[in-house]
Amino acid sequence: MSSVPEPTQPTLRFAGYAAVFGKRDSGGDVIVPGAFAETLAARQQAGVRLPLLWQHRPGQRIGWVDLAEEDRHGLRVIASLSPGAGPAAKALAEGAVNGLSFGYRVRDAAPRGDGRELRTIDLIEVSLVTRPMQQLARVHYVDSKGGRLAPA
Description:
Layout: E1 13-20, E2 30-31, H1 37-46, E3 50-54, E4 61-70, E5 74-81, H2 86-93, E6 99-112, E7 115-129, E8 139-143
C-alpha cells in the first residue's frame, strides 16, 4: 500500500514597507534613515527572529519576518504567515488589509514640530494592520505560490 502525501498549502508571503523615512505619521513623528540600524544588527547577531503580529496584539502572532532591512526608502520587510493565520491570511490575500506597522521603543529622538524626529529605535515586532500610523507603510506584493521575494 502506497501513501500519497497530502498537498501542502503554500505559505502566504508578502513584501512591503513597515516604515517610510522622512514622512510624518499621524502622531507627528518622522523616522530618519539609520534609525533601525542598531536594532537590526543586534537581532541578526543574536539570531532573534522578529514576530509578525495581527493588529499589534501580542497574543496573535500570525507569522515571522523573514527579512527586515533599511534601504533608501524605509524599513523594508518580507514576512511569511503561519498556516494558522486564518482571518489575517484571508484579509491579506483578498487585499482587504494591506497596512503595516511596527512596535518599538525610542532610544534617541529630538523634538520636531508637534512630534519627534526618531533617530534610534528598538524594533520589537511588525504588524499587519487595518490602519497604519504612517499612511505609506503598506504591503506592496503578496505571493501565495512560494516564489522568491528578493531584496530590492
